[in-house]
Specification:
Radius of gyration: 15 Å
Number of helices: 2
Helix content: over 70%
Structural class: mainly alpha
Protein name: DUF465 domain-containing protein
Shape: elongated
Number of domains: 1
Organism: Micavibrio aeruginosavorus
Coiled coil: 4-59
Pfam families: DUF465 (PF04325)
Order of helices and strands: HH
Distance between the termini: 24 Å
Largest sheet: none
Keywords: Coiled coil
Number of strands: 0
């Protein structure tokens, strides 16, 4: 298993990419003509990144059941 520092670095990279995609989606939606297909693809990629972020967070801080 990877160490916590490596997981944290991956998490930061994914969060940055997620934020960048969000900004790109907002820019595309504000600039006519709106390319719905491109926006839909970016949103799917953003959602996949969110899932990866959640997985990494759970790997870094596992649930403790007492």
């Amino acid at each position: 298993m990877e160490d916590i520092a490596e997981l944290q670095e991956k998490l930061e990279d994914l969060e940055h990419e997620h934020k960048t995609l969000d900004q790109e989606i907002n820019r595309l939606m504000a600039t006519p003509p709106v390319d719905l297909l491109t926006i839909q693809r970016l949103k799917k990629k953003k959602l996949a990144l969110k899932d990866q972020i959640q997985k990494l967070r759970s790997d870094i801080l596992p649930d403790i059941i007492a």
